Structure formats: C-alpha cells, structure tokens
Amino acid sequence: MATDTLVNILPDGECKQWFVMRDLTRSNAKCPAYVLLEKLGVEYFTPMVWKITIRNGQHKRKRVPYIHDLIFVHDSRKVIDPIVERIPTFQYRFLRNAGGKPMTVREKDMERFIYAIESSESPRYYRLDEITPDMCRSRIRIIGGNLNGYEGNLISIRGSKVKRLLVELPGFMAATVEVETEYIQLL
Questions:
Q1: How much is the pLDDT for 17?
Q2: Nearest of 161, 154, 151 to residue 131 by alpha carbon
Q3: Which of 18, 130, 148, 158 could form a disulfide with 110 if both were Cys (CB 3.0 to 4.6 A apart)?
Q4: Burial letters for 89-103: b for 16+ Cβ neighbours within 10 Å, e otherwise?
Q5: Which of 89, 91, 94, 117 is nearest to 104 (CA)?
Q6: Backbone dihedral angles phi then psi of residue 2, each to the nearest 5 degrees
Q7: CA 181 from chain center: how many Å?
Q8: Contact 116/130 with Cβ under 8 angstroms?
Q9: Is 81 helix (H, G, I), strand (E, B) or coil?
Q10: Cα 159 to chain center, whole Å?
Q11: 45, 72 in Cβ contact below 8 A?
Q12: pLDDT band for position 9 (50/70/90)?
C-alpha cells in the first residue's frame, strides 16, 4: 500500500491527489457519495463504524461513515470535476482565504492513516477536539508486527485493558488502533 512517491502522475499529465470532499446527502440516503464512487470505480476512503439500525422493527448491524459528510477521494481534478458537476450533493471542501483552492491531504499521511485503520479489527475514531492531554500517555514506537515503525502516543481509555496507538490524519481526525504489548517501545 505505501509508496515512496508523494505525487502520482497519470498518463495525461494530471496529478492524483487525496481531495477532501463533502457528501451533503442525508445520513439515511439510499445512494450516498461513497456508494456512488464505488460504482464508478473511483478510489476513496471514508472512516466506517458499525451501527445498529432499526428497519421494519428489526435490529440490523450496518457499516456507516463515522462522519457522514467527510470523504477522501484519490484521483485527479479531471476525473472528480465531472462527478461534482453532475451531483449537487457531492462537493469539494475548500481552504479558507485561499482563493477557491480545494483541500488536499498529503499522500504519505493518508496512506499511513488508511494502513493503520485497515490493520486493526476495531479502530476507534475521534475528532481532534475530543482528544484530551490526559488521554495521551507515553510516546511509543511499534517494533514488529503490522505497524512496525509507527510512532505516536499510547492512549489510555478508562476501563479498557487494551493498549491503543493514536494515529492522526493532520487537521481532520484521529483514530486509535490496538497494539500488542510486546511490540511497544517507550520513547
């Protein structure tokens, strides 16, 4: 998954980037943006969580986006612009005071975050304002296992005996992933 290049150049000279997008559909929409992107074959990432929903009186376990209107799309503007023009509920997120420049995430940061999430069976997501200094314990490095070389803070959650590493997507969100005690090196 991880690549050393920071920019992917497509055959037509366009750059593939991770764009930060908005999905303005309702949370119970039949065809949210991530479903549409999957049908179109466009690479995307949206943090998913399990949620219990009630439909026709029956409880169903369903994977839904952690933040419904946040989706990251990995492609060029040449591919994404026609989709945005055709679907009014799918929009770019723009930087403030930047003259209409869309938000992007560095390739390396996005790949690191996605890899950490996919290596864990039960990631927990947090908005950046939810992480308090008393949650962050020791600074650690992972030696061995799936997350070999990852550095971050060991997170303490009340009542939990599981060790978790905090992985941040700078400026957007954070997640904690389970780590085995034998792989933890204190820094």
A1: 92
A2: 154
A3: 18
A4: bbebbeeeeeeeebb
A5: 94
A6: -75, 140
A7: 25
A8: no
A9: helix
A10: 26
A11: yes
A12: low
- For residue 63, count CB atoms less than 10 angstroms from its CB and return exposed for 0-12, middle for 13-18, buried for 19 or more: exposed
DSSP 40-62: HT-EEE--EEEEEEEETTEEEEE
Q: Is 38 helix (H, G, I), strand (E, B) or coil?
A: helix
| Residue pLDDT, tens place only, 109-151 | 999 999 999 988 889 998 888 888 877 878 889 998 888 989 8
Contacts of 132 (CB under 8 A, 6+ apart): none
109 membership: H or E segment, kind and range? helix 107-118
d(C-alpha 84, C-alpha 141), whole Å: 40
**Each residue of 88-116: pLDDT tens digit?**
999 998 888 777 788 899 999 999 999 99
Per-residue confidence (pLDDT) for residue 175, from 0 to 100: 92
Torsions phi, psi for 158 (to 5 deg):
-55, 130
* Residue position matching structure tokens 């366009």: 14
DSSP state of 10: P
Give yes or no for residue 152 having a pLDDT over 60: yes
Backbone angles phi, psi at 69, to 5 degrees: -90, 10
